[in-house]
Amino acid sequence: MNMIPRRRREEGAEIGHPIDLFRRQMDRLFDDFWGETGLMSGLAGPGAGGTFLPRVDVTENESEVTVTAELPGLTDKDVEVSLAQGRMVLSGQKKSEQEHKDRSLHIVERSYGSFKRVIELPSAVQEDKAQASFRNGVLTVKVPKGAEVRSRKIQIREG
């Protein structure tokens, strides 16, 4: 039995180290439990609608990093994207589109509210050349890769 962790492949793309996969699965588990339509979302009270946290995919190829986010019920005017120091920030607000006057709520599973999602990018990128598109509730942001930041040894002088 081989005890050395190996990288898995899914449809030709590397998934990453098994510990990274485990971390992502645990993050998803906690998101499902505490947010959106999870077990604890009803604690905010009837009509609260839970919290909205967009699901994202981050991929890269030789030339660019691509972030794709599911944003159902939103338009491009409801979302802001910013890039700085190797991080992409997606933020915005999903507004409730229904009024509850003269109605009894029985099931409230749709989520809404303000959101902010910070995504660590896997490579150095050219932030000023990013391009974003929004179609059918899916935001796609493509950022060309930049020169890798190289570490260098710094000479320490006496006194």
How does this structure look, described?
By secondary structure, the protein is mostly beta strands. The chain has a single domain (8-144), classed as Immunoglobulin-like. It has one helix and nine strands, in the order ββαβββββββ. The chain has one helix at residues 18-34; strands at 8-10, 13-16, 56-60, 64-70, 79-84, 87-94, 113-120, 131-135, 138-144. The strands form three sheets. It has a four-stranded antiparallel β-sheet, with no helix packed on it. It has a three-stranded antiparallel β-sheet with strand order 5-6-7, with no helix packed on it. A two-stranded antiparallel ribbon has the order 1-2. A hairpin with a 2-residue loop joins β1 (8-10) and β2 (13-16). The longest helix has 17 residues, at 18-34. The N and C termini lie far apart (56 Å).
Quaternary structure annotation: single chain
Morphology: elongated
Q: What is the CATH-assigned architecture?
A: Sandwich
Share of helix, binned: 10-25%
The low-pLDDT segments are: 6-13, 36-49
Widest β-sheet, arrangement of strands: 3-4-9-8
Helix run count: 1
Average pLDDT, rounded to a whole number, is 76
State the major sheet: 4 strands, antiparallel
